[in-house]
Each structure stands twice: as C-alpha cells, then as structure tokens.
C-alpha cells in the first residue's frame, strides 16, 4: 500500500473528477480476470492500447498467482505436514505474486497514469471485485 | 503536511465496519461471541490432558512409546488448525466506498428505470455469464456491492464473505474461502484424534481387565 507516496500528495491537492470501475469478467470461469473493454470516460485521457495492455498484464499476473502446478502442490503438502507453521517463515506463492502485482501497479501509476492525471487502485484493496481508476481534474485545460 | 505525517497511521482493521474483534495488532480476527470457542478449547485440552495423564504412562510401558508421541503430534496439529481457523480472516469483502456505491446505484437505476412511488422496487440483480451459464449476482444492501458468485453476507459478523460456508460458533469465526482449508483439516484431525483416544481407552481398559478384573479397573482408572 502506498504510504507516503507522491501521488497521495497529488490527491490531496487535486480534486477528483470521477471514478471508473473496471468489473470482473466471468466468461471464462471464476478465475480473477478483469474486463479489457475500454471505458468511455478515459477516452481523452489515455491511449486505448496502453490501457488494455495494463489490464491484460494484470490478468496474466493473477492467472500466474492462481496457477496450480507442481511447485504449488509441493508447497501445499509441505505446509500441511508442518501444520502450516512454515508460513511463519516463508510466503505462499500467491502472496509473492500479489506483491509483484502491487509493484506493477505502482510502476504503471508512476510512469503512465500519474502524468495523465489518473490513478489505479490495486484490486486487492477492493476485494478483487473492481479495478478502480480515479480521474483527477485536468488543471492543464484551465491555463 | 508535517502534522499529518506525525500522527499514527490508521490501520485497516481499525476502520472495518463489521462486528469483528481484533487482537495482537490486527493479527487475530474473530467474531464477537467467543464463549463457545472457549468451550471448544476447554473440551479438547481437557480430554487430551486426561488422556496424557492417565493412559499414556500405562500404554507407553506396556505397548509402545510411539503411542503417546503420535498422540502429542496429533494434538498439536488439531490445536494449530483450530487456532488458524479461529484467528484468520475468512475472506471478508471490503464494503464499497461511497463513490463506488453511488456508481452502482446509478447503474441499477439505469437498468430498472423509474419506479413510481408506492411500488416496491424490483430486486437488484446483475446477470453475468460464467462459462456459458447465466448466474445471478445479488446486491448486498449492507455492504452496497453486488456479491461475487458464492459470496454471502454473515449477519453475525456483519460482513460479506467470499465463498461463505457458514458461521461456526465452535470456532468463533466465519468459515469462508481463506480459512476453509484449516477448518476442514481441523474437523478431520479432530475426528482422528477422538477415534485414536477412544480406541486406546478401550485397549487400556481391556488390558487392565485381563489382569485385574473389570470392576477393579474402573476403580483404578477414573480418568478413562
């Protein structure tokens, strides 16, 4: 979570014009997958390809988190044998990927979204229900 | 700005609107009524300590020392699972913030259209397609969200929980997506432990009866 982030300062100074919510896409099951449809409110703020690329990468990261492979099976078995006390020392694969996702969202905000007056909120803060995009008032138009 | 930096950061669990109690700086999350949970703890610890005190010396000498060792391991596993189930977050969905709640309400009004005053508004349902099947997502009036599939609202804890199974008073917490594994292992291992203790109680009584008669055995071993 952003503690003393420059975006938080920006938020306190800039007024929020609107918020857009990207909903979950359930067409391929209950895996965590967000809709890649480009919302109309962001049309004059950001490039459609850029945004869809962000959401697609996010979806891929969540798929990686929920992937069931040999390593996750072994991790589960080992954890069960130690009565899950091993998680006092190490993180689960899912938690590791969640950290990766947090870092990715931070990077995207710093490089792409903040310069355009937008802010992406990590979906885990909203219970993996929506990706919240905050649109700040565009001060540059006032000049 | 510096005044804001100086004050302590408010933790998420302090702001959670549900009826949960938190301990250990947010590491422990339980429901409000904990009485039955203490009863569960007392029953498990009590029965096991009677077993260890009265049966195990006899069984260790006459049969095998592996019996109490395995019982201790099983007991620790049961306690670990119980504490993990009781103290962990079942998968509580955060409530919608005001902006999201207004957004959803506007969306609902758009779909339902204007309802004349006096008529009951139609139920708030969102249809989604999951793998070709249409599933209805219900709207939660308390949390102001459309519940994801298999989520439900627990009235005791006043939270929407993802993949909600039930609220277990014995464990003192809801059982949902994030602690289902521990709950299942708890019930499984507890059953094993109960059967194990019962079997060895029978074995103990039989072995003693063979030596000194049934009635005397019962007098000698009140713990059994």
TrEMBL record, chain A:
Main localization of the protein described in the UniProt heading: Golgi
Keyword tRNA-binding included in the entry's annotation: no
Residue ranges of domain Golgin subfamily A member 7/ERF4 in the record: 20-132
UniProt GO cellular component terms: Golgi membrane; Golgi stack; palmitoyltransferase complex
Keyword Membrane (UniProt): yes
Pfam family, one: Erf4
Keywords, sorted A to Z: Golgi apparatus, Lipoprotein, Membrane, Palmitate
Transmembrane segment boundaries: none
Compartments, record wording: Golgi apparatus membrane
Membrane topology of this protein: Lipid-anchor
InterPro entries in the cross-refs: Golgin_A_7/ERF4, Ras_palmitoyltransferase
Any one biological process term the GO annotation gives: Golgi to plasma membrane protein transport
Role description: May be involved in protein transport from Golgi to cell surface. The ZDHHC9-GOLGA7 complex is a palmitoyltransferase specific for HRAS and NRAS.
Family named by the database record: Belongs to the ERF4 family.
UniProt-recorded name of the protein: Golgin subfamily A member 7
Organism annotation: Coregonus suidteri
Lineage, uppermost ranks: Eukaryota, Metazoa, Chordata, Craniata, Vertebrata
Automatic annotation (TrEMBL), chain B:
Keywords: Acyltransferase, Endoplasmic reticulum, Golgi apparatus, Lipoprotein, Membrane, Palmitate, Transferase, Transmembrane, Transmembrane helix
MF GO annotations: protein-cysteine S-palmitoyltransferase activity
PROSITE patterns xref list: DHHC
Segments passing through the bilayer: 36-54, 60-83, 182-207
Name of the top EC class for this enzyme: transferase
Enzyme Commission no: 2.3.1.225
Membrane topology term: Multi-pass membrane protein
Pfam families cross-referenced by the UniProt entry: DHHC
An annotated GO cellular component: endoplasmic reticulum membrane
Domain of life per record: Eukaryota
One annotated GO biological process: protein targeting to membrane
Reactions this protein catalyses: L-cysteinyl-[protein] + hexadecanoyl-CoA = S-hexadecanoyl-L-cysteinyl-[protein] + CoA
Subcellular localization, as worded in the UniProt entry: Endoplasmic reticulum membrane; Golgi apparatus membrane
Keyword Transmembrane (UniProt): yes
UniProt domain Palmitoyltransferase DHHC: residue ranges: 136-210
Record's comment describing the protein's domains: The DHHC domain is required for palmitoyltransferase activity.
Family, as annotated: Belongs to the DHHC palmitoyltransferase family. ERF2/ZDHHC9 subfamily.
Protein name in UniProt: Palmitoyltransferase
Organism for this UniProt entry: Coregonus suidteri
């Amino acid at each position: 979570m952003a503690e003393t982030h420059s975006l938080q300062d920006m938020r306190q100074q800039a007024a929020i014009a609107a918020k857009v919510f990207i909903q979950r896409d359930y067409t391929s099951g209950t895996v965590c997958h967000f809709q890649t449809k480009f919302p109309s409110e962001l049309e004059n703020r950001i490039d459609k390809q850029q945004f869809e690329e962000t959401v697609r990468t996010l979806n891929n990261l969540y798929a990686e988190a929920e992937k069931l492979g040999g390593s996750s099976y072994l991790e589960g078995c080992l954890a069960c044998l130690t009565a899950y006390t091993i998680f006092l020392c190490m993180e689960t694969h899912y938690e590791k990927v969640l950290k990766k996702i947090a870092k990715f969202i931070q990077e995207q905000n710093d490089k792409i979204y903040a310069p355009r007056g937008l802010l992406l909120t990590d979906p885990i803060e909203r219970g993996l229900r929506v990706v919240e995009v905050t649109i700040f008032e565009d001060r540059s138009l006032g000049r | 700005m510096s005044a804001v930096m100086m004050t302590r950061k408010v933790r998420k669990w302090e702001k959670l609107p549900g009826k949960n109690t938190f301990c250990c700086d947010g590491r422990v999350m339980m429901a409000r009524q904990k009485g039955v949970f203490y009863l569960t703890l007392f029953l498990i610890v009590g029965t096991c300590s009677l077993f260890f005190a009265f049966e195990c010396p006899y069984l260790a000498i006459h049969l095998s020392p592996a019996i109490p060792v395995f019982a201790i391991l099983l007991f620790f596993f049961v306690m670990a699972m119980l504490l993990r189930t009781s103290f962990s977050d079942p998968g509580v969905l955060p409530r919608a913030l005001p902006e999201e709640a207004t957004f959803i309400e506007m969306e609902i009004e758009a779909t339902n259209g204007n309802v004349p005053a006096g008529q009951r508004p139609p139920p708030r349902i969102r249809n989604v397609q999951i793998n070709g099947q249409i599933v209805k997502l219900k709207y939660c009036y308390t949390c102001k969200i459309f519940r994801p599939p298999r989520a439900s609202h627990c009235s005791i804890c006043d939270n929407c929980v993802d993949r909600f199974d039930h609220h277990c008073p014995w464990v003192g917490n809801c059982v949902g997506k994030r602690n289902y594994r521990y709950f299942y292992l708890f019930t499984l291992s507890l059953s094993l432990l109960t059967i194990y203790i019962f079997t060895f109680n029978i074995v103990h009584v039989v072995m003693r009866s063979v030596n000194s008669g049934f009635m005397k055995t019962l007098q000698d071993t009140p713990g059994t």
